[in-house]
Design the sequence.
């Protein structure tokens, strides 16, 4: 029995696959994905985006491969990437084979869209030969005509049927190393489709609310859609789709997982909205602090609270806490306990130093424990 059962999320049991060195499904951590928006043949620009995304916490990055020039560039991208690369293929089975040969860790492809059974066999063979997994990507906006005619409009049943039809083609080819996504820009439709798909199969699910919009609305829609599915234990890997830089998608994806306690990475700042009682500029401080702490990957919590109304209470639950006090004298808490006062000093500089020291200490302890094992 857990200490706080109201926080428990019981994950759906999915089979586990591999995307390069990242495990997806089963008891593997829920991975965060994004996609580059550079021209794939521009290897330098694409790699810069892949690296930035990886630095922000992306576990896997997808790259579009619409033409031969792109799959030709893929080899160098895979080689220079710190994370596994998924090749995004639509229709052209030859691009899929080229991408597998170039070292893609996964092919995002719908086997029902690539033509004859022979072509499917060739793609599956290339995937098997090169240790590639696949993702079937169903999208409400591009459902097969036959399904649309039969169901009248994109609906959860049609999406699940489409996904299972594609899956059957791979199963018939004795290929089971794949995950499935069932995306829609409508949150209700996406959530209903994923719920139904989660019931209908045990393949790992890649979650996404597609074409969710710009940074703010897209974040909100993704948080509602992905959040409710993840909370129900559904989902093995996530991609937040935003009309914004890939790094933003990664940050939002991670923060959704962090908010649900499903992943821990970097500093989580707990801060108050501020009001007339604040003893320092809370909003500005948090804005600068989050930026200055973005390089820290060690999981840690920091509370930044404007006054004693909520400061001590929040600090009790965090690794490092600050409560604003009068006369520019603030209280610092370490591991929930009052530790020292900060008078007439720069709050951000001080907190950054404390967090960096704590992160170094945690990492050193972790390394020592691993060495002892
Ligand atoms: S903690 Fe203090 S400063 Fe912050 S919102 Fe509450 S009362 Fe206002």
Sequence:
């Amino acid at each position: 029995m857990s200490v706080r059962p109201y926080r428990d999320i019981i994950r759906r049991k999915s089979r586990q696959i591999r995307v390069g060195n990242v495990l997806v499904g089963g008891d593997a951590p829920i991975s965060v994905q994004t996609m580059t928006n550079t021209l794939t043949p521009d290897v330098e620009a694409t790699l810069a985006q892949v690296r930035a995304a990886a630095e922000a916490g992306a576990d896997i990055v997808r790259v579009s491969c619409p033409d031969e020039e792109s799959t030709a560039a893929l080899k160098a991208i895979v080689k220079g990437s710190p994370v596994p690369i998924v090749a995004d293929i639509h229709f052209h089975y030859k691009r899929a084979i080229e991408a597998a040969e170039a070292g893609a860790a996964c092919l995002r492809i719908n086997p029902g869209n690539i033509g004859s059974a022979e072509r499917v066999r060739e793609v599956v063979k290339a995937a098997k030969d090169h240790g590639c997994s696949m993702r079937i990507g169903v999208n409400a906006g591009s459902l097969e005509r036959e399904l649309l005619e039969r169901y009248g409009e994109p609906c959860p049943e049609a999406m699940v049927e489409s996904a299972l039809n594609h899956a059957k083609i791979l199963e018939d080819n004795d290929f089971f190393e794949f995950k499935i996504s069932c995306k829609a820009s409508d949150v209700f439709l996406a959530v209903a489709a994923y719920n139904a798909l989660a019931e209908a199969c045990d393949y790992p699910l890649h979650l996404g609310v597609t074409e969710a919009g710009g940074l703010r609305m897209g974040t909100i829609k993704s948080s509602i859609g992905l959040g409710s599915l993840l909370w129900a234990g559904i989902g093995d890997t996530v991609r937040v789709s935003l009309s914004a830089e890939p790094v933003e998608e990664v940050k939002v994806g991670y923060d959704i997982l962090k908010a649900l306690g499903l992943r821990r990475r970097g500093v989580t700042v707990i801060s108050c909205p501020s009001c007339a009682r604040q003893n320092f500029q809370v909003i500005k401080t948090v804005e600068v602090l989050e930026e200055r702490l973005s390089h820290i990957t060690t999981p840690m919590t920091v509370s930044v609270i404007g006054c004693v109304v909520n400061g001590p209470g929040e600090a009790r639950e965090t690794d490092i806490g600050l409560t604003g006090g009068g006369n520019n004298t603030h209280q610092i808490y370490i591991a929930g306990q009052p530790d020292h006062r900060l008078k007439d000093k720069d709050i951000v500089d001080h907190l950054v130093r404390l967090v960096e020291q704590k992160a170094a200490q945690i990492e050193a302890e972790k390394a020592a424990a691993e060495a002892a094992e």
About this structure: The longest strand covers residues 133-139. Residues 347-372 form the longest helix (26 residues).
